[in-house]
Design goal:
139 residues; three-stranded antiparallel β-sheet
Length: 139
């Protein structure tokens, strides 16, 4: 379990030890991502989760690419719940948006997420974190 106040970088290191193989297989078998894209998208997903853990459950907005990986992981309910427990955060909830108006309302929070991401990992790549890509939020 992660310690209270654990750094974002330590959270990433720990998350990198989690077995995401079933999620990765799901994404490939359902033609959501190609095998050669999985390392990159998994990296972005673990970084996103590390921000939530490292900032004590603060609300961060995800891009559609991160959301794809999260959706696939949430479908593996036992594994997802076990990972959340292992992180010591309790269940990390996924809050989808259902309209363009909701997504637009999240744009300033998405910008905050990008700034926080950059503080820890450098400028995010446009492929996974486009300039206007707010889709869902997690906390």
């Amino acid at each position: 379990m992660l310690a209270v106040g654990e750094s974002v970088q330590e959270s990433v290191r720990r998350l990198n030890s989690w077995d995401f193989s079933r999620v990765r297989d799901f994404l490939v078998n359902h033609a959501i991502y190609e095998e050669d894209e999985l390392d990159d998208i998994q990296r972005e997903y673990t970084r996103y989760l590390a921000l939530i853990v490292g900032y004590g459950g603060a609300r961060f907005i995800m891009s559609s690419a991160v959301d794809d990986f999260w959706h696939a992981h949430v479908l593996h309910t036992k594994d997802y719940q076990a990972m959340c427990h292992w992180l010591g955060r309790g269940f990390i909830h996924h809050h989808p948006t259902s309209s363009k108006a909701e997504r637009d309302a999240l744009s300033s929070e998405y910008d905050d997420t990008i700034r926080t991401y950059a503080k820890h990992f450098g400028t995010p790549g446009e492929k996974f974190w486009p300039g206007s890509g707010a889709v869902c939020l997690g906390n």
